[in-house]
């Protein structure tokens, strides 16, 4: 029989890792805008467009559950 996982513990671990990684992202963002603001803005704009696409796909998944 499969062992039951403690999803709460795993989710807490993911949260801790994401918190550290988000801090790293912000450090990179600050550095990029300090040294190459135009190029950093172009890259951030592309990231934003891709994030919008991901959000749209996630919305499709959640709408199907209703």
Short description:
With 66 residues, this protein is mostly helical. It has one domain.
Describe the 3D structure:
This protein is mainly alpha-helical. It contains two helices and no strands. It has helices spanning 7-35, 37-63. Helix 1 (7-35) runs antiparallel to helix 2. The longest helix has 29 residues, at 7-35.
Task: List strands and helices in order, with pairings.
Layout: H1 7-35, H2 37-63
Helix pairs in contact: 1-2
Task: Indicate the overall shape.
Answer: flat
How many distinct domains? 1
Q: Give the overall pLDDT as a whole number.
A: 90
C-alpha termini separation: 32 Å
State Rg: 18 Å
The total of beta strands comes to: 0
Give the low-confidence spans: none
- Count of separate DSSP helical elements: 2
Q: Structural class, from helix and strand content?
A: mainly alpha
Strand content: under 5%
Query: What level of helicity do the residues show?
Result: over 70%
Order of helices and strands: HH
Question: What can be said about the biggest beta sheet?
Answer: none
């Amino acid at each position: 029989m499969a062992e039951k996982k403690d999803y709460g513990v795993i989710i807490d671990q993911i949260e801790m890792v994401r918190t550290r990684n988000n801090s790293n992202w912000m450090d990179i963002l600050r550095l990029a805008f300090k040294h190459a603001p135009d190029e950093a803005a172009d890259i951030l704009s592309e990231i934003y467009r891709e994030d919008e696409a991901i959000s749209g796909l996630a919305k499709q998944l959640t709408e199907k559950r209703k």
